[in-house]
Structure formats: structure tokens, C-alpha cells
Amino acid sequence: MEKELKNKERHIGYEVRTLDNMIGRRVNCWHSKMDEEVGITRMQAWIIGYVYEHSEKPVFQKDLEENFQIARSTATGILQLMEKKDLIVRKPYPGDARLKRLELTARAEKYQHGIMHNFDLLQIALKKDIPQEKLDTFFQVVDMIKNNIEKEDFHDKNIIEPGKGV
């Protein structure tokens, strides 16, 4: 497939998807090993990351429900299991006894620091042997593509719908 594309125009979507797959495989491998070692699910890992990234303000169960689009009962079950696994604690919120603030335990913070360390290593590997000016250009082009996608209204185009042919 790569040989065929050398003689033709390279397609941005194809290249981005290929790059995403390559990076994703590395990340999934690291995550899977760490998740297995700690004994957590991917959703629990996402919750740890969310609580960690938003630790400057109180995080409540309803924040997780909204952010991850999960039902209250689902969030409750996940958080109860995370408490049993010593990943989070629920602490009363001053001023409203009904609310319980979510905090990470030392065990969850250690896990999150490991994830962040792996992402730092990945970032170093991705940038290896690429001059800063090329990286600057890459990010400028990425921003331009994002802008093109955001401002493009595909509903006004002559997009061929499935089953309607060319």
C-alpha cells in the first residue's frame, strides 16, 4: 500500500489515521501493562486522569457523569469499586453535606505519574531527530487543518450518501 501511495498524492486523512494507529498501539501497550499491574479498567484509568487534571478544584461524581456521558448508576458502581481498590476517596464537601468531593489516593497518583512519565517518553521519541523549526511547521499545518475542518460545512457540499451512488 505504501508503495502505491509514493507515486500518487498522499492523503492527509490516511496519513493522520496511520500515525494515530502507530501511536495508539504504543500507548495501548503501555496502558494495558500498567492497568493490569494496578488492576484497573480503562474507564477507571480515565477517571484517575480526569480527577488528577482537575485537582485544582473540587471534582464530584456529577462531573464524571457529564464528562464521560455515563449514567449515575454506572458512575456510582465504578466509584464504589475504585474506593475498594484504594484508588479514590470520597470526602464531604464543606457547605453541602450531600456532596462528596473525589480525591485520588497515593496509589492512584503513583499510577497517574507513571502514565505521565510514559507520555513524556513518547513525546521525546516522536520528536527525536526532528529540528524545532520542522516541529513548528508541523503544528502550524495541524492548526490550519483543524481550522479548515471547523469552518467547513459538509452539508453544503455534494457529498454522496450511502446507497445513492455517484
Automatic annotation (TrEMBL):
Top-level taxon: Bacteria
Keywords: DNA-binding, Transcription, Transcription regulation
Protein name as it appears in the record: MarR family transcriptional regulator
Presence of keyword Transcription: yes
TM ranges: none
Alphabetical list of Gene3D superfamilies matching this protein: Winged helix-like DNA-binding domain superfamily/Winged helix DNA-binding domain
Residue ranges annotated for the HTH marR-type domain, each copy included: 1-147
